[in-house]
Every structure is written in structure tokens, then in C-alpha cells.
Amino acid sequence: MSLSNPRRRRACLAALSALILLPAAGCADGEPAAGPGKSIKIGLLASLSGTYQAVGKEIRDGFQLYLSSHDGRLGGHEVQLVVADEGNGAATAVPAATKLLKQDRVAALTGIVGGGSVAAVYPLLNETKVPFVGSNGRPELKDVSRVWHTSYLSDEPGEAIAQHVRDNVKGSVYAIGPDYQGGWDELRGFTDAFVKAGGKLANPDGKTTFTPFPATTNFTPYFAGIKASGAEAVYTFYAGSAAVDFVKQYAQSEIKDIPLYAAGFLTEGGVLDAQGDAARDIYSVLNYSPDLDNAENRDFVAAWKAKNDGSPTTYAMASYDAAAVLDRAIAAAGDNPTPERINAAIGQLGQISSPRGTWQFSPSTHAPVQKWYLRQVRQDGRALSNTVVGDLATVGG
Amino acid sequence: MAADLGFDPYLVPAVDGVAYGLLVFVAASGLVLCFGVADILNLAHGTLYAIGGYTAAALLDGGWSSLVLALAVGVAAATTAGALVAVLLTRAARRNHLTQALLTFGLALVGGSLLVSAFGPDQPPVRVPAALDGSVVIAGHRYAAYRLVFIGVAALIAGLLHLAVRRTRAGMLVRAAVDDAEMVAVLGVNPARVRVGVLAAAGALAGVAGVLGAPIIGPGPGTADVVLLLSLVVVVLGGLGSMGGTLLAALAVGQIQTLGVALAPSAAPFLLFAAMAAVLAVRARGLATARRAA
């Protein structure tokens, strides 16, 4: 992570100059709330620089896409969207969130790529009593009374695909993933549900094999262990550059014919382009695919493609949904939508129609109860894409 | 299944360890030249490798001609950068290693930031020539074709390097400069020029390793650190300044990083440094006893 320092510094500088320039606008209306038809301030925090900037930009663009296709209004109020840079993590996210919550006094906060950033910003949310509709990172939180997520919990993809793998693989399955919190959660979700369904892990000690993260760039030695274990399939979770290394080396290894199942992030977005043909035929589980056949998704994908190259990812979709959630909650919060009223209204939303299909917030975790899809990397015109090949379990709550 | 018995499951990691070890050797040999021969501790060495790697990612398009072009550009760029380090080190060359380390570490930070701002914070994909972008079956095992060819090419480079140091006039001058720099100066050879030449040659080696090794240790923000760390381990294990020892140490590092990880996956995070500590505890001067460039 040698790039974090200069980037962090630049982000700090940007936040600092924003801090100097913006108070005029922030102080002018004083009240975070807005009257009927008056404008309302929404804060969006996402990584626009650093390691996760690809995800951060999808989140920003997804939210803005919803605004531009709804006359720039949420719940009948004109929206002033204040965007801030989360950078590489908590160190940059906290000052940026402080500015949004205390200086700009936004009525609601959305975005945030990293789970660590969410955990770091969480005390500020409690202090300012502003609702947060997150669209990606979701750490373990004690009290979620003001925290909502339109994404998923890290153990849900594995949980959703476990039964399918159990039913379709004749034999044991090898579980392998990166050695950090995200990897533990993703793999635990799979292995717990898989073993519960009567499946057998091929790993020699019956436990997931974890690879040092981010140090591992050569996966060949692990492939020898997979081959020797006699596994009939492999389940994994990697993201970013590790996903590219894993998939490219897998395709050239002696286990290339063993079916590969994965949490969707292995082949989602930009990494699929870098993997190219090596990713062909990989099965993955995710809550979204751009080829889902429903009216909301057709509108969403068409609007996205009019402004961007390529198809939208689950990150953009979750942020688009965060805007949809705020739209309905602000409308339901009455003429004077204060943060408290918006938060209460989110809890009453019920079913939400979305490009991913209909979902709703779980009353206990405040994360979606949603359907998961089985996708396979297949040729779609000139490019490879994640094509939906079936429905999996509905998971959440 | 015969595959369940004996050594067979570990054949691929063992072969891969040779590929990995030879890559580390080519990368580390430059550092050995600097440190063992010119007595300069160049912590920017990993950055020179990254220059080669980014060049490969930018220029390779799946054809052979692009590989030749990437090699030419990458080696030229890394050689120039190596010579630049030598020029900047002119004042510090006679000072102790700490001064050199601080200066070159600063250069590594600056170089790393420049590379990231030029090529972006992501790991760019590297496209090897189409003919090598597949796998071959050897002894019933499937293995990446590029890595197999790389073993041959890297072994050739190691052989040429050995000949250059042993047999050429430049190599003899360099070895003479280690033995007695003043006597070489009396012979009419400027030691400063020898130093610039050695650092430029070290840069060229890092550039070759960077371009050819890009599909194995790919360019990215962390590449310079990874390569520098592996190279330093090899230099220490190899007995400070001996090419033969360096080769032995690099092959050992390769095997630890592949065969070792395959045999003991749970120990993967600290296997390399545990092995290094063990070697140093037993033989403080590294694997090879030879003190000088072999």
C-alpha cells in the first residue's frame, strides 16, 4: 500500500480546501431540514481516489444516475448532492464525513466503499443523528437503528450458493480465500451453509485454506494442493488484482478443468476485462446482473449505457437503489423531512422494486432480504459478461 | 491414482519454484552487482524492476514484435534510471551505507509515486505473446507455457551474466575494482565510471527482469517493495557479492515460495523469513562461502 500516503495527503488537502470554501453555503440555511418543495442536502461519501476508486466512481455515478433520471429530486425536494472523497479508508473517510455531517449538515448520508470506513464513521452518525443508507461496505455493527444498507452482508453470497453447489457437484469442494476479515466472512458463509447441507470440504483439515493477503500473487502452489485433494469443485472469493492473478493462473494450471464457483466479485466489473478468456465458464453468485429481465433493470441499464461505457455493476446498482430508498423515505417523511423523520420512514418502506428484483430491509440487520443469482461468464456479443443462468436462495435478515 | 503418491503432486510447484527462483535471480543479480561489486546499497532497485514491468504492460499487445519493443524500451529506461541513481549518488558514494540507503530510499519513493501517477493505481493487465498464452502438459501435469519458456530464457541470461563477469574485459575490471579500487585507478580507469557502469548494468538487469517477469510478478503499486525485499533476502542468503551464491539463494527462495507453500500452506506468511533466520543462525555468511563475485 505504498500509494496510500501521497494519495491520502492529496485527499486531505482536497477536504481541507473544501472545508475552507464551503462553510458559506453550509451556514446559509442552517437548518438541515427543508420545507415543502425546498431543497434538501444529501451527502455522498465514496473512494474517488486510491485503491478502490473504480468502485467509488460506480457508486457516485449510480446515485447521480437516479437523480438525473428523476429531475434531480428525491421525494419532491430538489437535491443538493454534496460529494466527498473517502480515499483509501478510515483515515480519509472520517474527516470527509465530519465535513458532510457537521459543516454541510446533510439530511442523510450515503455511499462508503470500505467496511472499515463505515465502522470509523459510525460514531459520527450516532452523534449527529443522521441516517446512513450505505451502498457497499458493511462491517459488524452493534446498533443499526440509523444504519441501512442496500448492498449485502459479506457472508450472504456463500450462503446463497451453498445448496446449489451441494446439489450439482458430485464430490467434495475445496474452499480457498484471502486471509483478512472480508475473506473470512465470505468463506465462512459458504462453508457453514455447505457443511450444514451435507456437503464435504476437500481441504485436508476440513477447514478453508487462507492465502496471505495481499502478499500472495502466485497461486500455483495452492493449486497443487487442490489437485492432490481430489476436489470435484472449488469455491473462492477474491477481488481486485488478486482476482485477476487467481483466475489467470487457474486457467493455465493443472486444475483448469475443475469447475470454479465464486462470490460474484471474482469476475465483477473491471477485473473481468483484465482476466479475459481465462474467466470463461466461471460460476459466480451475486445479487445482480445487468441482463436481469425486469422493467426497472431495462430502464436502469439503458440509462447507464447512455452515459457510460460498458454495463453497470452491482456497486452502481446498490447506489441507485440507495437513491430510490431515500426518494421514497423523504416523500413519506412529510413536508419537513428532518433526519429523524427520514430515518423513521426508511423503516416503514416495505417492498422496494429495484433493478435486482424486489427486495426489502431486514428488520434486524437493516440489510436487504434479497434474491441471489447464479451467473456464468459467457460470450455476450464481442465481450465476455456475467450471464444469469438461474435463481439461487433468497437470503438476508 | 498415482497422483496421490509421493512427489508427483509437488512436481508443478517444484518447476514453478525454478521459474520463480530464476526470476528472483535476474532481479537480484543487479543488486548483487551494486552491493557486492560497487559497494552501493541501492534501495531503488525494486523501482527499476517496476519500470520494466510497467513498460511491458503498456507495450505488450500479444505479438512477438511488441515483446522485442518492450524489452528494448524497458531495458533502456531502467538502464537510464540506474545511471541516474549513480550520478545522484556521486556525493554519497564515499559515505557510509546509511547515507546511500536514505538517498536511494527517497528515490524509490519518488519513483514509485511517479509510476503510479503515470500508470494509475491499479495492476495493469500484461498480455504475453499469443503463442505462449496457454498451457502445456509435462509429465501428466499442466503448466503455463510462458513460465516454462521463461525458465529457459532466464537460465540463458544467468549463463551470459556468468560469462560476462568471468571472461569479458569489463567484468575483469569490475572484479579488479572490488579487489583494489586504487590499483585500478592507477591503471588509468576512473572508479567513478566503473560505478556508473555497474549501476547502469544493474538497471539493465532489473529492466530485463521487469519486462520478462511482468506476467509472473506483475507491475503494480506494491511491486517495487516485493522485488526489493526478495532481492535483499537473496543478497543476504547468497553471501553478499557472490554470483554463484546468489543463484543458489534465488533458487532456494523460489522453492520456499512455491514448494514450501504447497507443503505447508498454513506457514505461508512467514516461511521465507523463518528459512532466512535459520540459514543466518547456522551460517552467518550465507549459503555460499565465497566472498567475492564468482
Can you walk through the features of this model?
The complex is a heterodimer of chains A (397) and B (294). Chain A is of the alpha/beta class and 397 residues long. Chain A folds into 2 domains: 4-152 and 295-366, Rossmann fold (3-Layer(aba) Sandwich), CATH 3.40.50.2300; 156-286 and 373-395, 3-Layer(aba) Sandwich (Rossmann fold), CATH 3.40.50.2300. Chain A has 13 helices and 14 strands. In chain A, strands 7, 8, 9, 10, 11, 12, 13 and 14 form an 8-stranded mixed β-sheet that branches. Chain A has a 6-stranded mixed β-sheet with strand order 2-3-1-4-5-6, with helices on both faces. Chain A starts with a helix and ends with a strand. Residues 15-35 of chain A have low confidence and may be disordered. Chain B has 294 residues and is an all-alpha fold. In chain B, 68% of the residues lie in helices and 3% in strands. Chain B has 11 helices and 2 strands, in the order H-H-H-H-E-E-H-H-H-H-H-H-H. Chain B has a two-stranded antiparallel sheet. In chain B, strand 1 (135-138) and strand 2 form a beta hairpin. The longest helix of chain B is centred in the first third of the chain and has 27 residues, at 11-37. The radius of gyration of chain B is 19 Å and the shape is globular. The chains are: A alpha/beta (397), B mainly alpha (294). Chain A binds chain B through residues 1-3, 6-7, 50-51, 53-54, 179, 209, 211-212, 214-218, 220-225, 227-228, 230, 240-241, 244-245, 249, 251-254, 256, 270, 273-274, 276, and chain B through 1, 3-4, 9-10, 12-13, 16, 20, 109, 112-113, 116, 121-125, 134-135, 141-145, 216-218, 220-222, 224-226, 257-262, 265, 268-269.
CATH superfamily of the largest domain in chain A: Response regulator
SS strand fraction of chain A: 15-25%
- State the share of residues found in helices of chain B, binned by percent: 55-70%
The end-to-end span of chain A amounts to 35 Å
